[in-house]
Amino acid sequence: MQDDRSSLDGPRVVLLAGGAGGSTFAVGLRDVLVAAGGSLTVICNTADDLWVHALRVQPDVDSMLYGLAGVKDAERGWGRAGESERVSHELREWGLGWDWFALGDLDLGTHIARTSWLRDGDGVGAVVERLNRRWELGATLLPMTEDEVDTFVELDDGTIHFQEWWTRHRAKREPRGFANPGIESARPAPGVLEAIAEADVVVLAPSNPVVSIGPILGIPGIAPAIRAAKAHVVGVSPIIGGSPVRGMADVCLRAVGVECSATGVAGLYGARAAGGLLDAWLIAEEDAAEASRVAELGIHPVVTPLWMKDVALTRTLAADALAAAVPR
Amino acid sequence: MQDDRSSLDGPRVVLLAGGAGGSTFAVGLRDVLVAAGGSLTVICNTADDLWVHALRVQPDVDSMLYGLAGVKDAERGWGRAGESERVSHELREWGLGWDWFALGDLDLGTHIARTSWLRDGDGVGAVVERLNRRWELGATLLPMTEDEVDTFVELDDGTIHFQEWWTRHRAKREPRGFANPGIESARPAPGVLEAIAEADVVVLAPSNPVVSIGPILGIPGIAPAIRAAKAHVVGVSPIIGGSPVRGMADVCLRAVGVECSATGVAGLYGARAAGGLLDAWLIAEEDAAEASRVAELGIHPVVTPLWMKDVALTRTLAADALAAAVPR
């Protein structure tokens, strides 16, 4: 959906997000902004993109896409609703396929289309723009970068690809750290810096701060653009009561030496006033006692329900995030 | 299936073939040779291979493979039995897909596996070898070449890809000719010349002589190897009663100025005694009157039922072809 300011009077919002939790939050935020006549641009993590059997797969982009399009499998929290795996079964018969990595038939349509466009010479930005067009998303989805950035997980006995660690090992193998080789020379995708510069609000989704939001902020130019933006910057804690809502943020935070708490993640992002990113930070009611610690960091704490149990609660949370950006 | 001569005492047979008719004939020949303790190597046309949405598709190789494996859709005569098109439906939703070119889900498994192996660096020969391994084929399938050879169809108003002409236009647009650009620098795939040199019998399947057998014989080295082989060379006419059994051989023959008859095709291949390829030529009972014309070319005519209406009749035809190679 194109932003036509002549018909809009709500805020222009940029969301930095990963996959599952990010797409759930994005749907609520999109709903609020559509109702308010605002606009939403999602800058999506692509550091877990990978080549699978010569097909380009973008797990976070697709989760965001399917979520905003309303075709996500709500029960699993990822992939397409009504999915089947006939092709995957064939791939296994051919001795291909990773039994720990699902490739649904509907999903494969996306991967084949994407790969075909890439092979025809489109950049990742143009490819994601084409993905944007199929459904009425009510938001503009952008990849963080057009460059291929991988995430590797450093284990005691070697280094494996993030997707293998995350999906195959369910993050059960303790990581010593994460690496995104070459990220220092990656460039923000077309439109990313412009969207940040024009935004009224920048929101950090309750996504994994290390492996989802981390790589986005690791692309040279993106974090400085957020720091320099006129927008208020609001984050939503992915940690509730000291635990990640979903996913394996606790393991990831431990590996980078950050306390698994709302305050810990707030400290990782840092206070904008002190050279970090955050103006305000939404923390759960369960973590209300941490509000003063967050405030001591120089970040405005907002205590509010963070559980995105249904669309209504998610919209309320999104509205809370926007409200936290109103100048005080 | 590897040829282990210590346990074999039947003939070593090489079959040159295209897709539909070729694979039907190959099944009968395979059955006869398995029973006789012989071996079958199929040299398959790859000039109708193409890239579809960044996937490598080999229509004739796959028809041969599925036919020999017993998983071909018998009713359609091509593709896999029990096929579905969920992924293709998605591709069309993405604005991809040619509505005239079916990509079944099971078939896509083959295409994805093949493309993945190619992208990993395997040559076409190694890829086809991997395709050979899944099922007990009772035959060894070889591509004619590892080089990419396309077939283009010259029309009055331009040139289009063979597959578009064949599948989309059903050969209804009158061709002025066919071209395989670059075929003069293509090389026979590994194993092709060796199989021909070691063969006791070389059979030309009742495939389209212009666009299926033609490109195989157009690969430099293959026709001379057949001419020089110790094997008896037997062909099966694809024309019965002046008409192609299936496919559009009549249109193709007209374009290259060859009479659409058993004799016409025999003349196209030529008598081995006169620098051509054929020692013997199987023609249909409907064309018995042509036997003398074939004999005048210097080719031994064998009049026999050519209709491959069921497996039993096809086996009989294959046995007739082998019998025609017995020295007289």
From TrEMBL, chains A, B:
Q: Which GO terms describe its molecular function?
A: LPPG:FO 2-phospho-L-lactate transferase activity
Q: Which domain of life is it from?
A: Bacteria
Q: Say yes or no: keyword Transferase present.
A: yes
Keywords assigned by UniProt, alphabetized: Magnesium, Transferase
InterPro entries this protein is in?
A: CofD, CofD-like_dom_sf, FbiA/CofD
Q: A single Pfam family, by name?
A: CofD
Give the Enzyme Commission number.
2.7.8.28
Residues folding into a coiled coil are none
**What enzyme class is recorded for this protein?**
transferase
Protein known as = 2-phospho-L-lactate transferase
Species of the source: Microbacterium alkaliflavum
